[in-house]
Amino acid sequence: MTQPIEKPRHPEKAHRPDNPVMRRKPEWLRVKAPTSPEYQETRALMRTLKLHTVCEEAACPNIGECWKKKHATMMILGSVCTRACAFCNVATGRPDQLDPHEPENVAEAVAAMGLAHVVITSVDRDDLDDGGAMQFVRTIEAIRKRAPATTIEILTPDFLRKDGALEMVVAARPDVYNHNLETVPRLYPTIRPGARYFHSLRLLNRVKELDPSIFTKSGIMVGLGEDRVEVMQVMDDLRSADVDFLTIGQYLQPTAKHAAVDRFVTPDEFMGYERMAVSKGFLVVAASPLTRSSYHADADFARLKAARAAKLAGGGA
Questions:
Q1: Is 150 in contact with 115 (CB distance < 8 Å)?
Q2: d(Cα 212, Cα 103) in Å, to the nearest integer?
Q3: Residuewise pLDDT in 10s, the chain (317 residues)
Q4: Which of 127, 122, 120 has its CA nearest to residue 95?
């Protein structure tokens, strides 16, 4: 029997020259392979419900730790992205058909795992008229119906040239709205060519204009060739957009076809970034080599609420 030909995961990168991969990571980036029973149970649940997770698709280094605690970040709108960012391991190419049962299946997984806080992200779907916004709305509604006590954090695409999409999602009132800038503006043409830095900033600011009660969040990777001054400027830009929560983590190269790691940023440098970001007024900052957008998201949401309450009690705006 002829075996089916496996499609390349990143067809648009196939003919690019290889970039050197730093095989040996520093001690602070080494993690244990996932082996716990809870990891296997979480994986089995995702397969049973035909769900995708960014933990797997993006090859997150924290998957063993998070899945042991039964914390998984569901990825909706299929498993194939219409963008081809140079840093991302999510499959690219012709996207999947939308699964009408996906919102209910996500809600069932949230209830089965007993999640107090869930993060829902997605691939980019430039092929859809609304960029996938309505699927976010349906997923939020399904979770609220099935697990009403669960707080919801979403990590959306930029909805570039999708009029009305952002407004639709904000009207569904997620507890946290996250959209990552990913890198400094100078590197967008090579690292995030399908996106526009100032459009992403405007999206985050627009969320606050539409509903100031929603926490906003964004993140960047370091180690791609940016310098400290550029990172400081991104912090200032995000504060100008009234973003509450900033994450900063180390970029790790998925394959030789992806952007090369420029350098491994030290834990001390991350601590410096965190101190600087706190001084600029973010309510919460998470900065470490292994920080990712949804890493410790449940505990960080509690920190967000506490920080806002303390600010309001102190007479802050």
A1: yes
A2: 26
A3: 455 556 677 777 767 788 878 778 888 887 776 667 777 777 787 788 887 876 676 666 667 667 666 677 889 999 899 998 999 888 888 898 999 999 999 999 999 989 999 999 999 999 999 999 999 999 999 999 999 999 999 999 999 999 999 999 999 999 999 999 999 999 999 999 999 999 999 999 999 999 999 999 999 999 999 999 999 999 999 999 999 999 999 999 988 989 999 999 999 999 999 999 999 999 999 999 998 887 788 889 999 999 999 999 887 65
A4: 127
Type of residue at 119: V
Q: How many Å apart are CA 109 and CA 107, to the nearest integer?
A: 5
Bridge partners (DSSP) listed for residue 23: none
- Is residue 249 classed as helix, strand or coil in its secondary structure? strand
Distance, in Å, from the CA atom of 127 to the CA atom of 1, rounded to the nearest integer, reads 35
**In 5-19, which positions are buried (b, 16+ CB within 10 angstroms) versus exposed (e)?**
eeeebbeebeeeeee
What CA–CA distance (Å, rounded) separates 284 from 188?
25
Strand-pair category, 52-53 with 74-76: antiparallel
H-assigned helices in the chain: 37-48, 54-57, 63-68, 102-113, 133-146, 165-171, 188-191, 197-210, 228-240, 267-279, 297-313
Task: Record the tokens describing residue 158, joined without a space.
Answer: 């930029």
Q: Centre a 10 Å sphere on the Cβ of residue 276 and count the other Cβ atoms it contains.
A: 16
Amino acid at 311: K
Residue with tokens 């909706």: 76
